[in-house]
């Protein structure tokens, strides 16, 4: 067990040693990186927003060739992202005025070049990120806020968040309060539906109770038809040849 722990500690020491060596042996030219950063700052600050937005209308291949000819180690996609970050920084801090001295810092991914910048409304810190091959990847504009402004923003965010929660809770309480009326409405609708089904006019019920007139086909009872035909002929004083009994219907009164 002690051998395993010792072996694990040795591996960790070697890993940390290689990491420290990679940081210390990373070579870069800070002057060259500053030239790339100044190129971006000068072009972004010197061009209006309309021209900066026009870069997004260029094809990615054409933009890559343009940046390659300009001697700036940056891809077209990263260049468009940096434009958005620059415009967002100006919206937050105001118009760009100037930039101070750069400070380089080595990271695991490459080099970060930072400097204090002066804007019209408030100062900010601009950081340029380079990868291990010294290609420019991104730009970050971080506005400098005072302690009072930070506390004010935190308070506003807290009030906004709590206000939203309370509004939602009040709305849910109102919805729950309305649920008690659902059984009452359901009962009313059910009663009104039953009343409509049972309601009817006075003439409908007698007609429904009256039996349908019974119709007798004379072909089914020829003797009855002959007797009735003879009775009609005797009553009319004629013979049975003058008419034909086609159907016999019983009257409702049953008096004959």
From TrEMBL:
Keyword Transmembrane helix appears in the UniProt entry: yes
Region (Disordered): 192-218
GO biological process: one example: sodium ion export across plasma membrane
InterPro entries: DUF3887 (IPR024981), Na_pump_deCOase (IPR005899)
Pfam families attached to this UniProt entry: DUF3887, OAD_gamma
Keywords recorded for this protein, A-Z: Cell membrane, Membrane, Transmembrane, Transmembrane helix
Residue ranges of the TM segments: 159-182
Assigned GO CC terms: plasma membrane
Main location: membrane
Name by which UniProt lists this protein: OadG family protein
Organism listed in the record: Candidatus Mediterraneibacter stercoravium
